[in-house]
Design goal:
Layout (H helix, E strand, L loop, with lengths): L11 H9 L2 H18 L2 H14 L2 H9 L3 H7 L8 H10 L17
Helix pairs in contact: 1-3, 2-3, 3-4, 4-6
Length: 112
């Protein structure tokens, strides 16, 4: 009979959290996640990155205090199945010190 042996390694999220405590790395990770989102529209990956950055930069409770959004609402909004309202999303970005901006899509024709 084969024994189940537990890994004694450090979980990947724990490593990511430690690295994202550095504001420059957190900024880089956020910018990269947004760039990737522009390409693939993977909302879950974007929200996962924002959640990890929030946890590394003081936790969801700290972000909740900064944004006046409840910790539970942040937890739900930043979950892989989250679908935050634009107001909540903007509050999260503001709380993390990130500003949202828009730019035109190249070669986009408007529907008239």
């Amino acid at each position: 009979m084969k024994k189940n042996i537990k890994s004694t390694g450090i979980p990947l999220d724990q490593i990511r959290l430690e690295r994202l405590k550095d504001p420059k790395r957190a900024e880089f990770a956020t910018k990269l996640a947004l760039r990737e989102f522009e390409k693939d529209n993977d909302v879950a990956a974007l929200l996962d990155t924002l959640r990890l950055v929030a946890q590394a930069q003081g936790g969801l409770a700290g972000l909740a205090r900064k944004t006046a959004v409840s910790r539970q609402a942040l937890h739900e909004a930043l979950s892989p199945d989250g679908n935050p309202r634009l107001r909540t999303f903007q509050s999260v970005l503001d709380g993390l010190g990130i500003r949202m901006s828009f730019k035109p899509v190249p070669h986009h024709t408007s529907a008239s």
